[in-house]
């Protein structure tokens, strides 16, 4: 089998309509596979914003401390193989194809079990379980795809759960922060620890109730651990983190914004808790100093500066603008924006508009992308000059044509938008 054939079979599992949320299909599948996800300890990360940063930091720290660590994230920007890593090595197309061939017969068995066909995300999640067991890894770090309790990743042991910032995002998860928190708190496992980022009071109440119900230990930001200090530095920021076992000084993080620093601190604490002791200072500095999170205030061009960020909800957009204003300087900001139709587009625009001098809106390469005319109307209503384009590539080209060397071009609204921009830029 060739990679293209395996990819075609996977893509065919994208459902036209998502099935009702449950764990029946993934449970059936891992039963056939003999529970590969239980052959290694796991750090399980959820939240509305910050999951990927936290998961990547935890992975890099665990690797730096001698653990062969598997990382599963989503979505991908260019190739599905980006979702799977062991330490700093991404899965190859050959490895993907080999694992897919092993997985395929079990997918067919699960398909026939009476719960409907295994979905795209369930299939790639199972593939991660299998690949990590085959390596084998010493620990697996899993980023939730969406939600928590009903997410396909939630059949892991969850030796350490991490709950990043919770806010309104996917309407499928609930209409209130408390409803969304209830779904995300579903990853908390009985008698296991959960590392919790700063939360709205209604979310924290739900998390604490779930933890009490299953007798889990809650480690809360600012109470049990904290980002104690932060200073801007060339190419990132310097941090001081109070963990649950030690204080960590003089850490450099090559990411921007307080939210990235807090998520990095959560990742550090998760590894501390997993290991049960403090981390080595030198290994910790080395690991944090090389963290990379594509599509999160990622600089991909200079003169003018071109930044890519996957912010796709109002809270993420506001945090991104705050980080921009703290860490970058520009004459005019040219916004390239494409968002999904099921998002709070008005809230995203409200967060971005005050910093924006001109906007270029477009449709990204995803079936859920909002109509450019709808987004343009919302941007224009905020008093921002705006043009609508047929694609992200066209919008980016127009922004680059209009920009002067001391301007900034910000491409945002979705990781699908970031992926489109990366393809348009070619060399990224």
State the helicity in percent bands.
25-40%
Instruction: Give the spatial strand order of the biggest sheet.
Output: 4-3-2-5-1-6-7-8
Whole-number total of structural domains: 2
Average pLDDT across residues? 95
CATH superfamily of the largest domain: Mur-like, catalytic domain
| Cα separation of the termini | 29 Å
Structural class: alpha/beta
Please provide the count of β strands.
Answer: 17
The second-level CATH architecture of the largest domain is: 3-Layer(aba) Sandwich
CATH T-level fold name of the largest domain: UDP-N-acetylmuramoyl-L-alanine:D-glutamate ligase
Strand content: 15-25%
**What is the CATH first-level class name of the largest domain?**
Alpha Beta
Largest sheet, if any?
Answer: 8 strands, mixed
- What's the number of helices? 14
Low-confidence runs (pLDDT<50, min 5 residues)?
A: none
> What radius of gyration results from the CA coordinates?
21 Å
Q: Sum up the overall morphology in one term.
A: globular
Overview of this protein structure:
The protein is built from 14 helices and 17 strands. It has 428 residues and is of the alpha/beta class. It folds into two domains: 3-224 and 257-277, UDP-N-acetylmuramoyl-L-alanine:D-glutamate ligase; 298-425, Protein-Tyrosine Phosphatase, Chain A, CATH 3.90.190. An eight-stranded mixed β-sheet has the order 4-3-2-5-1-6-7-8, sandwiched between helices. A six-stranded mixed β-sheet has the order 12-13-17-14-15-16, sandwiched between helices. The longest helix has 19 residues, at 93-111. The mean pLDDT is 95.
């Amino acid at each position: 089998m060739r990679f293209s054939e395996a990819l075609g079979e996977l893509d065919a599992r994208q459902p036209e309509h998502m099935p009702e949320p449950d764990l029946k299909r993934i449970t059936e599948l891992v039963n056939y596979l003999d529970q590969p996800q239980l052959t290694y300890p796991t750090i399980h990360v959820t939240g509305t914003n910050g999951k990927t940063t936290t998961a990547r930091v935890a992975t890099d720290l665990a690797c730096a401390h001698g653990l062969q660590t598997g990382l599963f994230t989503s979505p991908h920007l260019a190739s599905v193989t980006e979702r799977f890593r062991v330490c700093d090595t991404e899965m190859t197309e050959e490895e993907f194809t080999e694992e897919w061939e092993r997985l395929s017969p079990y997918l067919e068995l699960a398909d026939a079990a009476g719960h409907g066909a295994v979905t795209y995300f369930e299939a790639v999640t199972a593939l991660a379980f299998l690949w990590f067991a085959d390596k084998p890894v010493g620990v697996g770090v899993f980023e939730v795809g969406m939600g928590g309790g009903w997410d396909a990743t939630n059949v892991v042991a969850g030796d350490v759960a991490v709950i990043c910032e919770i806010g309104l995002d996917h309407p499928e998860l609930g209409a209130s922060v408390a409803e969304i928190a209830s779904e995300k708190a579903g990853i908390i496992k009985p008698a296991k620890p959960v590392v919790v980022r700063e939360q709205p009071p209604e979310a924290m109440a739900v998390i604490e109730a779930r933890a009490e119900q299953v007798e889990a230990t809650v480690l809360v930001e600012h109470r049990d651990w904290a980002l104690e200090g932060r200073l801007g530095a060339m190419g990132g920021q310097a941090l001081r983190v109070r963990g649950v076992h030690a204080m960590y000084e003089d850490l450099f993080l090559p990411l921007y914004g307080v939210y990235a620093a807090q998520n990095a601190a959560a990742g550090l604490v998760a590894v501390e808790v997993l290991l049960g002791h403090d981390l080595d200072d030198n290994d910790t500095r080395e690991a944090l100093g090389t963290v990379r999170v594509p599509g999160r205030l990622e600089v991909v061009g200079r003169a003018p500066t071109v930044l890519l960020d996957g912010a796709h909800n109002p809270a993420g957009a506001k945090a991104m603008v705050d980080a921009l204003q703290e860490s970058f300087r520009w004459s005019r900001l040219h916004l390239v924006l494409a968002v999904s139709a099921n998002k709070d587009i008005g809230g995203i625009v409200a967060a971005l508009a005050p910093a924006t001098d001109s906007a270029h809106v477009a449709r990204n390469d995803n079936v859920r992308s909002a109509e450019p005319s709808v987004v343009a109307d919302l941007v224009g209503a905020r008093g921002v000059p705006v043009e609508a384009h047929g694609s992200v590539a066209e919008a980016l080209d127009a922004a680059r044509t209009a920009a002067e060397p001391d301007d900034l071009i910000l491409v945002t609204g979705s990781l699908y938008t970031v992926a489109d921009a990366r393809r348009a830029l070619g060399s990224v």
